[in-house]
Amino acid sequence: MDVDAYLKRIGADRPSRVDVAALRELQERHLATVPFENLDVILGVPIELDEDRLLAKVIGGRGGYCYELNTAFGALLRALGAEVTLLGAAVYGPNGLGPPFDHLALRVDLDSPWLVDVGFGRHSLHPLRLDSRTDQPDPGGTFRLVEAGGDLDVVKDDAPQYRLEPHARVLADFAPTNWWQQTWPGSHFRRGAVASLQTAAGQVTVAGRTLIRTSAAGRTETALHSDAEVVAAYREHLGIELDLALAQDLGRG
Fold first, then answer.
1. Backbone angles phi, psi at 194, to 5 degrees
2. What pTM, to 2 d.p., does this model score?
């Protein structure tokens, strides 16, 4: 992989080694520059879990969802010398836990094991200690990892987010659920186009034809009245280049 191109994509310098400070910086830069987005799902473009394809997509200026973003970020961290393990998780929803492998997260072993996640929408801005069971304050909220029968519940502000399995996984383990997320009519990734970036100040999102900004001061929504305004919002706020035809297709999706 082209490490320098990836680092340029996220606006980060190459660290001399991946220590805790470097990991925090890399995760924060990734979340601020590589959008969580489902545009290919809405456009009917198959998402294949091939590391080279996913790296090309991210380095080329796009984002993705958990299988894409965390796979690509894990590859970058490995190329920089870190020990990285893929972990599977089931996401909490209105009806409880979703299916196994509903989410892909990363374990990064440095001086201690760390939970790294750049693919869960609005989540922790910094890595979380996997071996800690106390509150972990973060710009994104207060997190705690709670024992759950051999697994770990990742809890944000007292609300469980997902249940993490401790077992090492390979990318192919996530292929069935990746396909299901793209094709099942009830998948929330098929409900409409959405793309967002997370920063220390909050989050910026384009959902359909609405620009949404959230911060400590609250939430604002701005209607995007034309395809040209949608294209401009993706470019200005998310760094994604769309043409008018794609904007029209996303609007129909």
1. -150, 140
2. 0.96
